[in-house]
Write a structure and sequence with these properties.
single chain, alpha+beta, Ribosomal Protein S5, domain 2, five-stranded mixed sheet, 5 strands
Length: about 130
């Protein structure tokens, strides 16, 4: 099997992964993913596509992450892994799609507008 390259995005985070056959190691920016994502919630988000398709110990993943925060990076990595698993076997799509793991979440931070405090919050109004 050749190396499969896919990209996942969430907010401003971008995850580029290289998936190949192996024993289940996940490396993120030259660190183990448990060191890079210390909380159990983020580790669960990253491993979810592999658990749904029961491929935890089948593939090695080398990931390059940049931009965004930890939560956005974890979700971008999850999307990239899901896309790579679909490239390997189209049957995985049936398991991943109902769990919403193949959907690119389009929500982004709304920009700040001029003459306002934040994106929607305005400065305090004074009548007199």
């Amino acid at each position: 099997m050749e190396v499969i390259h896919t990209i996942g995005r969430r907010k401003t985070a971008v995850a580029r992964i290289y998936l190949k056959e192996g024993n289940g190691t996940i490396t993120v920016n030259t660190k183990d993913f448990k060191v890079y994502f210390p909380t159990a919630t983020l580790q669960y988000i990253v491993k979810q596509p592999l658990e749904v398709t029961s491929c935890i110990d089948k593939y090695d993943i080398q990931a390059n992450l940049n931009g965004g925060g930890f939560n956005g990076q974890a979700e971008a990595l999850s999307l990239a892994i899901s896309r790579a698993l679909c490239k390997i076997d189209t049957e995985h799509r049936v398991a991943l799609k109902p769990k919403m793991l193949l959907r690119r979440d389009p929500r982004m931070v709304e920009r700040k507008k001029p003459g306002q405090k934040k994106a929607r919050k305005r400065f305090q109004f004074s009548k007199r």
